[in-house]
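Aim 2 progress update. The chain analyzed this quarter is reproduced below.
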Amino acid sequence: MTDPYSTPGLTPGHLGAPVVEPEGRAPGPAPAGAPHDPRRRRTGLACGLTLLALATVLGAAVLVGYLWWPRDEPVRAADFSGSGSGSTQVSVVQGATVAQIGQALVKQGVVASTRAFTEAAAKSPAGNSIQPGTYTLRQKLPAVSALNVLLDPANANALTIPEGRRAAQVYDAVDQKLKLTAGTTKAVAEQRTGELGLPPEAGGNPEGYLFPSTYPVTAETSALGLLQQMVRQAARTQKADELETASALLGRSPYELVTIASLVQGEADNAEDMAKVARVVNNRLAKRMPLQFDSTINYALGRSTLTTTADDTRLDSPFNTYLHPGLPPTPIANPGRDALQAAVQPAEGDWLYFVTVAPGDTRFTDSFEQHQRNVAEFNTRQAARAARPAAGTGGH
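Predicted structure tokens:
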């Protein structure tokens, strides 16, 4: 058989039988007026169908290739090599995700891509434990090197406010961290109260709204800026804990719930007991019983002790909850997340009294007689630890 790819008259691209022209006539267009050759129409149609088939096959091949391309060989993320150069600062705020931190690093020229940083963090057991703060890093660092700097808390320039600190203690901490003259931050809080962002119910008093957390510090950080960050964080946390909703359900204002949370923070020995302490507060208020909390007297006196004397309980102060029923006029500290959640969702129980007999051993009861026995045991333990007996009232 004659090779079809070498036979004269083969239609280009046609894979079927060759088209043979009549003898003595070269291939070409038919003369004007000549009858139409049906073979040409069939041949053109066959070419079109063949091209369509080829396009379909090629398209299928591309699709199969894409679907079967090895997924374990992704395109490598852009990354730097070497030890970097220069220097810059990057602040990590409370609650920032690894991706957000990576974006900040890219913006400051520390790492080449967010993806390289997130991949490095994903491979590290501690990748999600970067602490808030301001870090000084070299620029053009490999993502792993940048991550190692951020994972070392010693590299973080930050101010940490522990749970339960009073506003006065927060002011002192800010002064010390920013190397300000003592009393500077307190003056800022008093003179620029309207700029703090406090809710109207606070009446201009930041107590209870300087949320305990870790805040990054840079050369530009000011006392006012730090206080504003704390107030904003308090608002975010209270919104997340649905303080407004709980306020309606419990029949107390949001400000009262913050006040209760501050009492819980000051009285509970551990987070597990906070919801029980919150229930005692609610039960006593419902029965119109004075709270008799030592923490409120200590707040009025600007001190922190484990015991309260009989003379203390006669202190002339609106914060003396031995003399005055109901809640104190303001929060007595800045509560953390656990205390706020306890105030929003107190435990179920009929307790009216509690006393921490020993660390980790807080006893709750609805019996005054049992409470007195618990207080006696507390005093005995205190006396054994001191040179003289401690005349504790129990305070709860």
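The radius of gyration is 38 Å. The chain has 13 helices and six strands. These observations will guide the mutagenesis experiments scheduled for the next reporting period.
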